[in-house]
Design brief:
With 196 residues, the chain is of the alpha/beta class. The chain has two domains: 50 residues, 434 Repressor (Amino-terminal Domain) (Orthogonal Bundle), CATH 1.10.260; 103 residues, Response regulator (Rossmann fold). Strands 2-1-3-4-5 form a five-stranded parallel β-sheet, sandwiched between helices. Helix 1 packs across helix 3.
Length: 196
């Protein structure tokens, strides 16, 4: 379907016999819509294949319902598993993900510029290894533009939300379990060890 053929929120409202504000409330899953009205509007949305124009919504609100994700080390199990979990939760909350892969530190400024240009609602930054000066500068850039940032797998000395895996406690629990099963010689196979 071309852009010219796309059904509009106004047409959904006309077909459902409600206002455009009511359609907007249904799309945004607001609770202040009667259940029968919600079902009628949703039936029209489903029948027409309507989907909201996220770009237009972002222009209206100043932010999109898109969360930027900056991630490195994707071939490793941990980051790809994290990304799958982020995607599942974002979908459940009605958000899209804009995923930007960085392969080298020099890719960081470009990744941040791309996400800022998309008016993302926030940034989840998975740092594979210690956060360096360039990460600090880019986080400052995002925060100064009032874009919330959550660091995954690393922390900073300043107050900033971080989600960190407790590898020490996880390792201790794994060893205790193996010992309880009678194992006495325990080996460890790791990926690349980063400075911590």
């Amino acid at each position: 379907m071309s852009t010219a053929d796309r059904i509009t929120i106004r047409e959904i409202a006309q077909q459902a016999g409600v206002s455009t504000q009511t359609v907007s409330r249904v799309i945004n899953q607001r609770p202040d819509v009667a259940q029968d009205t919600r079902q009628r509007v949703q039936a029209v949305i489903d029948a027409t294949g309507y989907f909201p124009n996220r770009l237009a919504q972002g222009l209206t609100r100043g932010r999109t319902r898109t969360i930027g994700v900056i991630i490195s080390g994707l071939p490793l199990y941990g980051p790809s598993y994290t990304l799958a979990g982020l995607d599942k939760q974002a979908q459940a909350l009605g958000f899209d993900l804009a995923i930007t892969l960085i392969h080298q530190e020099k890719d960081i400024p470009s990744a941040v510029r791309q996400l800022r240009a998309q008016n993302v609602a926030g940034v989840l930054w998975s740092v594979n290894g210690p956060a360096g000066k360039q990460v600090d500068e880019m986080v400052d850039s995002l925060c100064s533009n009032k874009i919330p940032v959550v660091l995954l797998s690393t922390s900073q000395k300043r107050p900033l939300t971080s989600v960190i895996v407790d590898n020490f406690s996880g390792s201790r629990l794994a060893v205790e379990h193996l010992q309880s099963e009678g194992c006495r010689q325990i080996g460890v196979i790791t990926g690349r060890m980063s400075e911590r």
